[in-house]
Specification:
CATH superfamily of the largest domain: Cytidine Deaminase, domain 2
Bound molecules: zinc ion
Function: This enzyme scavenges exogenous and endogenous cytidine and 2'-deoxycytidine for UMP synthesis.
CATH topology of the largest domain: Cytidine Deaminase, domain 2
Order of helices and strands: HHEHHEEHEHEEHHEEHEHE
InterPro entries: APOBEC/CMP_deaminase_Zn-bd, CMP_dCMP_dom, Cyd/dCyd_deaminase_Zn-bd, Cyt/Deoxycyt_deaminase, Cyt_deam_dimer, Cytidine_deaminase-like, Cytidine_deaminase_bacteria
EC number: 3.5.4.5
Largest sheet: 6 strands, mixed
Strand order of the largest sheet: 1-3-2-4-5-6
Protein name: Cytidine deaminase
Shape: globular
CATH architecture of the largest domain: 3-Layer(aba) Sandwich
Subunit structure: Homodimer.
Length: 294
């Protein structure tokens, strides 16, 4: 079992401990549970979807990286596939607070990067902040997304975000988690550049058309990619680097062990992720940061 779980394992009810053990005992537990695993855990533990997600929150929060606030937030996104995806907040010392990732953004982006097409529910251990409510309103599940919190009745995003402004108030655009492929190409065999290009091709930027992707190579030779997730209200947009760092963190990688990083974006886009990406990577100790354009 990963060291991060040992301190909070006793907070997990014993029936759930038994049901989870076959999956969580391994060091390479991917911070997600497949639909089949989830069904088995529900049967063995007697918990329903909502109760299971609430009970898993301490495990999700164990992925929190909060050197500034020391406030540990965990979230669980449930896909329509039935898969569960963990998420946790991430803070980065040495760069502006705008680079911070919230737990809901982490779980949602984790689901997106693992191929989930639509979310059914999000569960979080504190009430979602305004920023996250707006971020979630970009999803193709809309305001019908179920939102579960400890000791609260089940509600939907519509309850947490009345009089919502969102993508449907603007153009008829793809929504976050809709499958897209923008078709950009780069003439290179470099695996990391192609991984970042693939992420840019799947990125969500319907308002600026400034599609962007990031790929990170760590010291173990593993590659993690992240896609830009733009928001109708602009400020809650999630940069592609943060998306890649979410996947790295949830997959058990270390954000301070990045050997090489690549950003791919448009040469003539309205926006550029370059300055923020290179500054945050420098703060994380990565000195090899490259930019390629289509
Ligand atoms: Zn938030």
């Amino acid at each position: 079992m990963q060291a991060r779980f040992r301190a909070i394992w006793s907070d997990i009810p014993s029936e759930l401990q038994k049901a989870l053990s076959p999956y969580i005992s391994y060091d390479d537990f991917p911070a997600m549970l497949t639909a089949g695993q989830t069904e088995s855990i529900k049967q063995l533990s007697g918990l329903d979807d909502q109760a299971l997600a609430l009970a898993l929150l301490p495990l999700a929060a164990a992925y929190s990286l909060a050197p500034i606030s020391h406030f540990y937030v965990g979230a669980i996104a449930r896909g329509e596939s039935g898969n569960l995806y963990f998420g946790a907040n991430m803070e980065f010392a040495g760069v502006p607070l705008q680079q911070t990732v919230h737990a809901e953004q982490s779980a949602i982006t984790h689901a997106w990067l693992r191929g989930e097409k639509k979310l059914a529910a999000i569960t979080v251990n504190y009430s979602p902040c305004g920023h996250c409510r707006q971020f979630m309103n970009e999803l193709n599940s809309g305001t019908q997304l179920a939102v579960y919190l400890p000791n609260r009745p089940p509600l939907t995003l519509a309850d947490y975000l009345p009089e919502a402004f969102g993508p449907r108030d603007l153009a008829d655009t793809p929504l976050l988690l809709d499958e897209v492929n923008h078709g950009y190409q780069l003439a290179t065999c470099d695996e990391l550049v192609q991984a970042a290009l693939d992420a840019a091709n799947r990125s969500h930027a319907p308002y600026s058309q400034s599609h962007a992707g990031v790929a990170l190579l760590d010291e173990q030779g593993k590659i993690y990619t992240g896609r830009y997730a733009e928001n109708a209200a602009f400020n809650p947009s999630l940069p592609p680097l943060q998306a890649a760092l979410i996947l790295m963190n949830m997959a058990g990688g270390h954000c301070q062990s990045i050997k090489r990083a690549v950003l791919v974006e448009g040469e003539n886009s309205h926006l550029s992720q370059w300055n923020a990406t290179s500054a945050t990577l420098t703060a994380l100790g990565c000195t090899t940061v490259e930019r390629y354009t289509f």
